[in-house]
């Protein structure tokens, strides 16, 4: 066997896959398809817990099809009541071969009228039941071997005027292992049986028989044409016209074809595979409904460009550019406080730190779960921008998928819609803005400023001392001069200190401008990372989980389709 070819899954594996697919489809796909799958799973669990030695064969037919008469002919005894009054059968009637284990199975089916048959299915004429008993009395031996555990059910007419009868038929047509459709020459083309019963069970060809009863009422020359017409109708319903589901002509009155029908029933009962085949077909139906509800197409999935667009949209809604600019201005303000001209630094106290105003001056050291920024709540425009970003992301991720999954992806993207603003605010509060960290060159320029200030103070004190001494007419030597300069050293100290301080302040301002722009870019990047993390937790991860659910659903369907 080629490695590429895989063994067909067992019924247990298919049921497990159906359970997984149903779980994933719940709340996402059509409720009727999900309910149908759950019904199949429940029915399968119940049927598999009951007798595997019995095959349940149900006779279904319309009023006047001779269903009960045919049932008696197949059994070989007059068990079911047949009369001119319609409908004849009002409750399900069971003919049971092999009593052990049958009671619980019949209880599950809801069949209370039970007839246990000790003799095997007869052979030959429809009236062979009587001859079988005669032969047994004469020879003392059974006429034929008994089939494996078998339960034949005679059911009410599916077109009965009684709602109770129709309810019984609709319930049991989904529970029996083998379905025998009994039609007659007058009603075999009736739309009710084909559209409401046979066609919906088109995948059940392996456990379906189609019987044309009362062929004795047709001229012998017309039987082939009528059977060909029935085969065509059955084929249109989707059933195969070969094997077990190939229509067979019978007459419960003359016995024509009855033995052929019995032979099919014996074959099915002897293999004891009908219950599993029926469940397999039910799983096929459920899988087809789920596949139809799911639709075709594959979602595009989550891409880097889509995540980038989502982050950009949420960053705009969170006013990341404005916060980054505030961080830059805060940096410039702190730089001026460290490198500005010392005599004017006190004026900076009247300028409030932009980051402090936003409660963002703690450099990411706050606990975002209990602290919030002072950013204004998202306005209508910001909320609209955030919603638009989320919708666009969901649309991009689900692009290509059918509507049910597109809808579920959109819903997943909006799972945390109400707390998205808080999540973004926490992300901003969690961001490290480096608000309290100084640049290395601040210290250098600050030292220069203080040296310049010391020069000014020294020069002023020197000049003040000279002035006081002269005031008190104390003789003092003249102040020294620097060669080439007309001014004395004390005056030069004052002027040099002032010029150096102003020049250093201007240098610091230029450097602070560069640093502010770098800080703005750094904060913008860090904020985007924080917003991207919030987007991942509140939007991307739920969407990814939904896409993973889609993939798991498709994998389960693949198992069901093998």
UniProtKB/TrEMBL annotation:
Molecular-function GO terms, alphabetical: GTP binding; ribosomal small subunit binding; rRNA binding
Keyword Membrane: yes
GO biological process, one term: ribosomal small subunit assembly
Residues annotated as domain Dynamin N-terminal: 57-214
Record InterPro entries: Dynamin_N, GTPase_Era-like, P-loop_NTPase
Residues that span the membrane, as ranges: 440-469, 489-516
GO cellular component, one term: cytosol
Keywords, sorted A to Z: Membrane, Transmembrane, Transmembrane helix
Name recorded for this polypeptide: ABC transporter
SUPFAM superfamilies for this protein: P-loop containing nucleoside triphosphate hydrolases
